[in-house]
User: Fold PiggyBac transposable element-derived protein domain-containing protein from Rhamnusium bicolor.
Amino acid sequence: MDRQEEERLLKWFEESDDNNIALSESESDPYSDDGQFNGDSDYVPDSFRSDSGSERQSEEDNRSGTESEGSNQDLEENEEENESLAENVAAESIWEEVQTEIPNFEFDSTQSGIKIVGIENMSPIDVFRQIWNNDVMNLLLTSTNTYGAKLLNTNRPKTRNSRSREFKPITENELNKFLGLCILQGMIKVPIIRKLFSYNPFYYHPIFLHVLSGRRFEQILRCFNATPAVFDEQDRLHKVRSLLDLVKQNSNSVYSPCEALSLDESMLLLRGRLVFRQYIKNKKSKYGIKFYELTTHEGYILNLEIYHGRDRNQPKPGKTSKTEELVLRLLGPYLNKGHHVYMDNFYNSVSLSSKLLTYKTHSTGTLRVDRRGNPAVVINKKLRKGEHIWRKKQNISVYVSKWKDKRNVCAITTGYKPKMITVRKKYGVEKQKPCEIDGYNRHMSGIDKSDQMLSYYSCPRKTIRWYKKSLISSFGYIIVELLLSVYKRSKKN
Assistant:
């Protein structure tokens, strides 16, 4: 500040009568009479600030907008918390500790069993022909011969002794021989298939060379196919779907299941590259093709689906989850008949059990604690060993229970009233156990029995073509069902 300005300010202060008034006036008006800025004032005008008025206004607007957005978010979060709290309170209010009568859907047990007329006088091959009938054979013959001719017409270079240099269409008799040798090779362990047709004393078996030559067997195996003439190219299972549909239809036509059914998954070992190859760590074959199977508790396969990955063209599920849709598809032919299906915690939920009751079908099995709709009073309850707690959903016979053995076990059932019963273990030791857990243990072993019998006749062999392994595996399923049918017949006699 220059000398003249200082003198002017001193003179102005001297002339004022009240210093306080002069100070307040100097704060309110920092400019002198000639419009010069008073630098000793605490007030700094906008023109002397680094921020312009427009920038300061935008900052104030942004600040107010941020504050309003934050307040809106807080309100939305509070509303969501209130809604979730209200939902939890409402969800807990629908569970009660009252037992009601279990609905009796009056399953007709007189219709269950083998439906083949005159099976007492049939040989095993006659029973086999009831499932693996002429329609299946014609599909295999047509598809295999078509694929063999297609391989013959390819432009790939062929050596003089190549199997694809010349192809002779197979006959039904040759196909029967081929399938018979596939069953027989399941009981003989050799490093490669060609050893079955050698004279090496370590591997020699007279039946193989007597029935077919090694080159002809390998040629039929290379061309073995079940793809129909018309198929959907978008379907990943078009190479096996037609055969599986025929086999399932024929299996259901010759046998009616009893009341108890079990639903679980099975694995077909496959280490090759496949877009829908799965991994399940608790299975013997950890990598491979996953089958969802519906069986009787004795191991008879009633229905199955192959997992083929996500379908991008499939519409998004609505109120029904994909797991529930899968269960309803597998149980489709057996709904509204009074069956009782046993499933593990991968499938079970409160909504699925409620929905199955509308189809006159009971369900029992283990339950995951994080499923939507579970009663918190049961899931969060800390139990001591041997303790048992349960709740029932209002207006519907759905029971959720929890039992502490070595660890906590949650279960859901619509076919039992939860209570503790005395069961006898393997060596005659008695133990207290919930009745729903005991029923689950007795009827859930259908898939395991089926896999056990398949292991005795392991027809599939290592191959990079997954569909061949699936086709021959389906042939093994028929052998299992044949054995069960013959067993039931001998049991009646």
Notes: The first helix runs from residue 3 to 15. The CA atoms of residues 142 and 226 lie 8 Å apart.
